[in-house]
Design goal:
Chain lengths: 552, 571, 294, 318
Amino acid sequence: MPASRSRRRLAALAASSIAAVALAALAGCTAADPSTSSGAPTEGGTLVYATGDAEPSCLDPHVGGNYPQALIAGQYLESLVSLDESREVVPWLATGWTVSDDGLTWEFTLRDDVSFTDGTPFDAAAVKANIEHLQDPATQSSTGYLAVGKIASVEVVSDTVARLHLTAPDSALLESFAQPWTAIQSPAGIARGMDANCQAPIGTGPFVVEEWVAQDHVSLVRNDDYHGGPADRGRDDAAYLDGIEWRFIPDSASRYAALQAGEVDIIDNAQPDTLAQADEGGALVEIDAPRPGASNRLELNAGQAPFDDERVREAFIRAVDVNDGIDSLFFGTAERSYSALSSVEPLAYADESLFGTDLDAANALLDEAGWTERDADGIRSKDGVPLVLRFPVSTNQSIPAEQSLFEQVQATAKEAGFDVRIEPVDLSSWYGALFANEYELVSAPYTKIGPDVLRILYHSDSITPAPSGYFANLAQLSDPQLDALLTEAASESEPAARAALYEQAQQIILGGFHALPLYDQQNHFLHSAGLQGVRAMPTVSTPWFADAWLAG
Amino acid sequence: MTGTTQAAPAPTDAPVADVLAIEGLRVTFGDGGAPVEAVRGIDLRVGRGEVVALVGESGSGKSVTARAALGLAGAGARVQAERFELDGSDVRRATPRQWRRLRGAKAGLVLQDALVSLDPLRPIGREIGDALRLHLGLRPAAARARVLGLLELVGMPHPALTIDRRSGELSGGMRQRALIASALALDPPLVIADEPTTALDVGVQVRVLGLLAEAAARGAGVLLISHDLAVVSRIADRVVVLADGVVVEAGPTGEVLASPRHPRTRELIAAVPTDVPRGVPLLGAPATAGPSQPAAAPAVRPPAPTGAPPVVEARGLVKAFTVGGSTTVAVDDVDLRLERGRTLGLVGESGSGKTTVARLLLALTRPDAGTVRLDGDAWSELPERARRPQRRRIGAIWQDPFGSFDPRWGVERLLRDAIAAGGGAPGSAAVADLLDQVHLSPDLAARHPLDLSGGQRQRVAIARALAARPDVLICDEPVSALDVTVQARVLDLLDELQREHGLALLVISHDLGVVRHMSDELAVMRHGRILEQGPAERVFDAPEHEYTAALIRDSPRLAVGPDARRDPADR
Amino acid sequence: MSDVELRSRAAAVGPECGRASALGAGTRRVRPGTVLALAFAAFLLVATVAPSLLQTAAPNAIAPRDAFSPPSLAHWFGTDESGRDVYSRVVQGTGASLAIGASATAIGLAIGLILGAVAALGGSVLDFVVGRVNEVLFAFPGILLALLVIVLWGPGPVTATIAVGLSTAPGYARIIRGELLSIRDSGFVEAARVLGHGPFRIFARHVLPNALVPVAALATLGIGQAVVWASSLSYLGLGAQPPAAEWGAMLAAGRTYITTAWWLTVFPGLMIVLTTLATTVLGRAITARDGRRR
Amino acid sequence: MARASRPLRTFALRLGGAVFVLWAVATLTFFAIHLVPGDPAQAILGGPGSQASQEALDRVRADYGLDQPLLAQYAAMLGRLVTGDLGTSYSLKTPVAAVIGGQLVGTLTLALLALVVAWALAIGLALWSTAPGRTARAVSGAVELTAAALPHFWLATVLIAVFSTGLGWLPPVANGAASGLVLPVITLAVPLAGFLAQLMREHLLDALEQPFTVSALARGETGAGIRLRHALRHAAIPAVHLSGWAVGYLISGAVVVETIFARPGLGRTLLRATELRDVPVVMGVVLVVAVVYVVLTVVTDVVAGVADPRLRRGGSTA
């Protein structure tokens, strides 16, 4: 089921009317989706959603801000703007926006007919409250915090107009506001304090958080007053479903079994082998929605030996062979990527030529770099230092197939004389290893809308860790020219120029052999044929259930 | 004491119908390739109201016969007989189901030690009631009533209380009563008692036999199995002597005892120590004895000059034990003297503190008060470190020699270890010599105690004790686990060794007969106190204490005259 | 006639002759099973010492193109998700797995022996104290112990081994204590004292050896258990490090494909079970000999 | 009067012992967790990878007394524990008592049901192993060992594959209904049953060699009667003593089982808390488990004591 092909077709279709695209999206993104041919939607019923992502410790995506939160928050919170299938920004809670020429002032016009599910009206004050909430250190926001980093202040012009004053132009602002981590909540809800708000954030979305049973499920009920939605939505009314039972089933095999058994209607993080099965079975429907932002790639830590030497980095990349592995391990559900960015990003730049496997070249490069001695196992060393690559793997973040792929990387790299030490650890220890700079290789997915993710991942500023020790530039790529390009691109509002800048930036990143792209961040949903009208939001590929219904 | 006996005693001279009639019984154990024939064609008859004693040594096949009579010879066993009738019905072709109906109903079984023969986890009431439940399908309430009756019948004190006790919570005597009650539950025409009195205190022995006699008096046929002719002769009408799986002699008790024809019978009679004077070997030359050369052990020391301190002297020994709050005085102000070359007998019922005395003399436990002196020197007060080199001078043998052998060691290693402890040269010659002294063949050295008979084990234990060349030998119930004949040989051996090595012996036993036969001095113990002490003859002929008298009266001796079996019944 | 009656014969004629009880019990004879167990143990030995003798392929050689091929003549146990030969990996894993099993058991036994000895021979106060210590260890969920050890010293076979060893220690301690107590009060120890042997000699020559026999039997069970334990840690992603072919790790890794490629888990699992079986049968053989003697 | 005081003393000892155990468990856990790399303050501020600012970190450290020396923190913790306060979860920001309270029932139900089922299976296996003939013993022995050698995660997956995906009889994941409990309980019970059966069969065989079986047979008791009415009790007692340990074992197993069957419970809470370095929760769970264990050992001792008065004299310590 080559999802990517269908995506390209979509890109072509993009010009045509939004609603049409929305439908086509369903047609394209889902293998033989019956919903295209099926009859009228049916009201009612509770959908059971089983997520394999970690259970959030807080349902408010402002706090912290990770993908599990985005997944569920999308059901009860709405953002100011959204993206359509062609990744053009479209209105949502904000009906329109203008930006001053210097790019330092933004004015957002807001819908006047929306109120939060606690009755609080949605207005400019709410927007102000939310942005300030994101910026308040006490909120402990990491993702949203970065997104609104350039906003100096919010001015309430009128109930329906909010004016944002920026410290510097931000070409990514709209994309940032399209993310669930900056979604808008009821100020009254926020005022309740973090503990209460974490339990049940109050938004304007199609569903409302009813209760959260830890480690078991979150029950969401329909927001009957809901209307509107992102501009590319086909309808205007409340959801068909009475509610959603949002279950946490961490074990992938059980999750899939539950779907097969009809215990649940849709699962995320479907594993490659089960996708292949489902494909044969036909009773289940797949939605392949790769996450935006960065691709899944191995970062090569250029901050210290041996990868501070470009020749060694190239040698590694030339040595490893992952294509066969990706085919067999992912059963054709994942396509090899040659870009630092997700293939859904229009500005993604790929260069396959850089990543061709060539063992001889690798060996030559290593000899040239002085890693000449080889021990009994063929492991190279230089001045008695063996060519060891420490590779901490977070067992929480890497699916089994990926871990197996890493083993194959290990095996192929060994042929060139690399001693790759895979260290499976839990999330805390993983961060621990990174903070302590005890790694040469690491795979760290990062989801964000738009190419600005490159600035977070590869700008030298991101090397200096936060007080908590966190830093995003795991390749420890420090290149003034690149920094300049990324900064400039971030404030360049003229699309063509912006695209050019990002292309140069990516050429530097890839050309310097700082990362080995593997594939897009896999994001596969499987659902029963009975569930129809589901779509994955073009923003960060979270599922959208306001228009879904359970047939028969 | 027997309380209400309901059935009128059946006249014993009435013509007796056989409750058990066996002819040409053969039992073979097909273990592996070579089948072992344990019983080789015996005839056996038990009439109503009759007590038949089946007497023989270990391995004579008596127990197997008894089991066969209950169809319990075992799956490994092949049982054949020309005639095999239980209460008139032929059981040769009986199916397991049929056997189950017969057991308990037609024949009850009383085993040796009730502690293990009654389920220690179940109240005796239930154990006894099982028979009723199984055969009459009685409701618990009804069964309980019947059980209480039975307990009355066997003279169990406070039946209402004891019925809910487990065997472990009862005294040996009460236990045995319970066991008998369970055998009599359905008033079976045949009661089989297998060593019902072995290792019981003599007093209890008598009462148990009395109960069986009563059962017979009520018309049941009793098959009494024992190795001890003296014990059974009390109540047996007829005696059947078994040896090597065949009947060697049978007849009315009186006749058999008066004029035994078969040597094995004579041996059994001779083996009974009671009334055999000190120093007279019970069985003449030991059966297994080889030509006994002069021992390699040091020559007999001259008898100590009078006035010299006794080898072991205990003064005012007191020892109390505290088990979770409650304290019991096991030994209370005990004085003892062991002279070189002489034997002190210590007799008393179980729990009288005999063993504690032994442990005190061996300095295995510290006395709360009093002292033990060895050759006049300090012993019990010594710190263990100082005492250790001296320890070899006091040897010991126990009732259960097997338990006193390291399960991982063979005979040879056991003896070498002991020889070394005695400072000797642990060569195989020394080992062979030791075995010879205890009249065992040298090639036993290669064996493991597991593969020895009870008697052989005790001899090995004695050999080990000798190996350390001790001055004193403390024998705690040395023979109470053995057949009389074996017991006799062991006793003779001890005598012999004492003469050879001038050992001072302390012989501890619940069996006055044994003690008296062995001892120069005699001490009677009860509740931790020495009741009386003095020259064996004196104590035995003119007991000062009533308790001593009772012990003497109860100690098994060969009954003379057919009326002998009456006497226990009227106590 | 039911076997109860057969076995009860032992008791029936027990009082009369010591060896009957030995004959009586069916458990106590050398059985063909023991021979099979020995054979398998031999296989394990070879696989540990010289795996290459048994292997049909390089255990870590990947071949993504023929991944997931079911058992065949080419690959007796099939191939795994990276096309590696499962049979060769199983053989390769023997050493590592047994190492984990054995050393974990050793650790558990060592600690257990110390605690047990102190409790049994150190007097009532120490006994009470050790008793509590034991309860503390018992009260700790083994998995937490494991998790702590692992987050402390990082994952991998060594820490997994330590973790498993620690969590099995109290069980051993309790049993060893019981054994030691019964031996301490036994007739033969008394006899040794009477002969004037010193406490250390007695402990070394009588108490310890006799206590170790049943413990040895326990250990045989422990080895298999330890491997299983370690595999659970691997499932939680904290076990052996790739590409190390360790049975537990293989079991955990193959689990993902249990419905599509059963052979990935069945064969390593089978090895664990067979190892436990073999070691236990051998252990039983040891104790059977000893059991006759108690 | 010495007799009267005895139960009191034993009770006092028990209580003292229990308190000691809890204290020791708390102490061990506390220091063990503080040895673990990872900044609690960070655990509080959004866990791993959080980008908490310096001031935020400082404030939290102050709030939670993390700036105090370790011993001071330890003392404070003990102080709270004495008053029955388990503290507040770092990651969930809710009282630990509440966090655990929500999970306790589920796990205990699971563990206790598993214990019962394990017992039933074990008894069946043990009895089977004493059935006539060599084969029965050999086969049952193999079954016991295999059962004991099954990793929970593997068994669970197979059960799901067979009974949910294959036959569609049972739900693969927890659903309020009782049917959702079946597979988890079986998964936990089977390996435990393997252990118990091995233990019981040894004692069963020993018991069947005791003379009292002969007496019972002589009363006309059936083979089955002997096993059920006599031998089983003897075999059960040592196994009963294991129950305390068994619960610990089951809770360890629960970590895996609850993850696979998506059941809320202490096991998952523990795992998650350890990964997030959520000290108070880890502490709370461990203590609760310890309490359960202690209570259970007391109960089992009493039960065993009732079943076998011999045990009451000279009670066992370790």
